[in-house]
Design a protein that fits this description.
By secondary structure, the protein is an alpha/beta fold. It contains 8 helices and 14 strands. The chain has an 8-stranded mixed beta sheet with strand order 5-8-2-1-11-13-14-12, sandwiched between helices. A 4-stranded mixed beta sheet has the order 6-7-10-9, covered by helices on one side. A two-stranded antiparallel sheet has the order 3-4. Strand 9 and strand 10 form a beta hairpin. The longest helix has 25 residues.
């Protein structure tokens, strides 16, 4: 029987809110078994960039990562945000290790565009160093990963966090019983964006297609759900989309089947 592994991607809006982050860490600490955390931090990077006169440009909510923007993202994601999370986890006696995908050659990527647009130094996962991740996990380490990878040719790349989490989950699924959780500020996939009680408890592919055609699910959330279904297709046991306050209650949120 495979050992259980929970992979959690936490959104920037949770990470950047001090109270929200403390709640998240408390909930995260209560989850049993092996754990791996991938975090965002976009709004904070934008705020720091404004003070440094570095303006982040986007296409369809995806950043265009030039050299100055990459330096900013590496500083904020790989430095400040990553180590704040590690410190909070250590305070709860969790043996956390703050890393990026470039460390230990964990994630190698290639440059990625978007529908004919150049996203600059944005990466799409090419290879994951599964044996090294397994060694970390089985040594009792909780990897806390910032979404920075490398291209094998001495350059850093910035990766979209939902896709990175899904790719890592897929790579580890042959070894572990993997649950992937997308944790953000909403209770799950909502039929009515203004009603937190309108959560879709179980979302199957046919219903997802129908909701997209009805324009109920759109914009950046399509990317999240596309990655969720891709993870299921590649052996991940379950994907859950939920709020940070419900993280330790897996029966809540939206379950991707």
């Amino acid at each position: 029987m495979k050992q259980k592994l929970t992979i959690i991607k936490v959104s920037g809006k949770i990470v950047e809110n001090p109270d929200g982050l403390k709640t998240f860490v408390k909930e995260f600490a209560s989850i049993d078994g092996l754990k791996l955390l991938i975090h965002s931090g976009a709004n904070l990077a934008t705020q720091v960039g404004e003070r440094m006169n570095i303006k982040t440009r986007t296409i369809e909510d995806r950043p265009i990562v030039d050299e100055q923007t990459l330096k900013l993202l590496a500083m904020v994601y790989g430095g400040l945000v990553n180590k704040q999370i590690v410190a909070l986890l250590q305070g709860r006696k969790l043996n956390a290790l703050g890393i990026t995908g470039a460390d230990l050659n964990l994630v190698q990527s290639t440059r990625q565009g978007l529908a004919g647009h150049d996203l600059g130094l944005t990466g799409a996962v090419k290879n994951i160093n599964t044996p090294t991740l397994v060694k970390l996990l089985e040594a009792g380490v909780i990897p806390v990963m910032a979404p920075l990878t490398h291209d094998g040719n001495c350059s850093l790349l910035f990766n979209e966090t939902d896709a990175l989490a899904a790719e890592i989950a897929k790579a580890l699924a042959p070894r572990y019983d993997v649950t992937l959780i997308y944790c953000f500020e909403r209770n799950g996939v909502l039929l009515n964006i203004d009603d937190e009680d309108s959560v879709v408890a179980v979302l199957r592919r046919t219903q997802y297609k129908n909701l997209r055609e009805m324009d109920i699910i759109k914009d950046w959330f399509v990317n999240k759900l596309d990655n969720a279904f891709s993870a299921i297709d590649h052996g991940v046991k379950e994907v859950i989309i939920t709020n940070a306050v419900n993280l330790s209650r897996p029966q809540l949120g939206t379950h991707i089947k």
